[in-house]
């Protein structure tokens, strides 16, 4: 197999290299990429310049595709399995969910199916300023916790909601649509520590986590913020400086991510696809 990987940082991130671009579109390559995503949290394909059809082919080879975002967009592309992530008002008349991605989060935590395994993102137009994407491994962050803190987290559950994820921008949502915007999704209770089928443990944290069940609100929210900060420290996180044509795949079940704020007039355009999850949180 003529694809290779090189580590970006000791605990997170790999870059994929290839001799022949066609080598990326095989079942063997897809299995290797998926395994590397599970191991290293995020895999970057520098300047690969995928078409939507090629991105969907990689998505399908790595696992079944799923749509996780409501289609409020007036998209410029025909295939609805590719979601255009943009603040361009002509395409996205309801920007609140994109603005919410300025803060650490995990995708699909409030849906009534297993959370998506992975998110795949192509950079079509980058922002002149801002727009980088940051990833934080909640696998590596959990593994790095002191044993006493790991023990203290066992059995704790957090209550997740879309409303919580939009708390930081709620005042900026037009009042006439505010209730509808923050009211989507379910209120879900998940363990803070997720023991995966593999036996590895990650944390389910980020802005959807509103409070800790059966714990006073101030103490619970303080704990969740501390865990976010712990996971986001440089040892466990990676910031990708996008170049147009870059493509990245990350393990949504073991990572938070966020975008560095950018101007809505920047023209930033990302094309996103999603791989369905196979593990129920337990």
UniProtKB/TrEMBL annotation:
Q: Which UniProt keywords apply?
A: Dioxygenase, Iron, Metal-binding, Oxidoreductase
EC category name: oxidoreductase
Q: Tell me where in this chain the TauD/TfdA-like domain is found.
A: 6-274
Recorded hits in InterPro entries, A to Z, give: TauD-like_sf, TauD/TfdA-like, TfdA_dioxygenase
Gene3D superfamilies named in the record: Clavaminate synthase-like
Q: Output the superkingdom of the source species.
A: Bacteria
Q: Does the keyword Transport apply?
A: no
Tagged with keyword Metal-binding:
yes
Q: Name one GO molecular function term.
A: dioxygenase activity
Report the EC number(s), separated by commas if there are several.
1.14.11.-
Give the record's family classification. Answer: Belongs to the TfdA dioxygenase family.
Q: How is this protein named in the record?
A: TauD/TfdA family dioxygenase
Species source reads: Novosphingobium aquae
């Amino acid at each position: 197999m003529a694809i290779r990987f090189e580590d970006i940082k000791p605990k997170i991130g790999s870059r994929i290299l290839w001799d022949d671009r066609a080598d990326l579109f095989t079942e063997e390559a897809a299995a290797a990429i998926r395994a590397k995503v599970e191991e290293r949290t995020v895999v970057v394909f520098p300047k690969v310049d995928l078409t939507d059809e090629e991105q969907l082919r990689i998505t399908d080879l790595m696992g079944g595709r799923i749509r996780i975002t409501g289609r409020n967009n007036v998209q410029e592309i025909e295939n609805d399995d590719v979601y255009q992530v943009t603040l361009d008002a002509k395409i996205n008349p309801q920007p609140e969910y994109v603005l919410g991605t300025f803060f650490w989060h995990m995708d699909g935590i409030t849906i009534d199916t297993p959370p998506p395994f992975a998110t795949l993102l192509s950079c079509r137009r980058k922002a002149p300023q801002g727009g980088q994407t940051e990833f934080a491994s909640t696998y590596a962050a959990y593994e790095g916790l002191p044993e006493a803190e790991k023990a203290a987290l066992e059995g704790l559950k957090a209550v997740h909601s879309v409303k919580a994820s939009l708390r930081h921008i709620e005042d900026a949502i037009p009042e006439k649509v505010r209730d509808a915007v923050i009211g989507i999704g379910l209120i879900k209770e998940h363990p803070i520590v997720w023991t995966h089928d593999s036996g590895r443990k990650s944390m389910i944290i980020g802005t959807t986590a509103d409070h800790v069940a059966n714990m006073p609100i101030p103490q619970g929210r303080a704990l969740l913020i501390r865990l976010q900060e712990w996971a986001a420290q440089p040892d466990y996180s990676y910031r990708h400086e996008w170049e147009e044509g870059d493509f990245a795949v990350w393990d949504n079940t073991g990572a938070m991510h966020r975008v560095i704020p950018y101007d809505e007039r920047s023209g930033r355009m990302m094309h996103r696809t999603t791989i369905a999850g196979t593990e129920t949180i337990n």
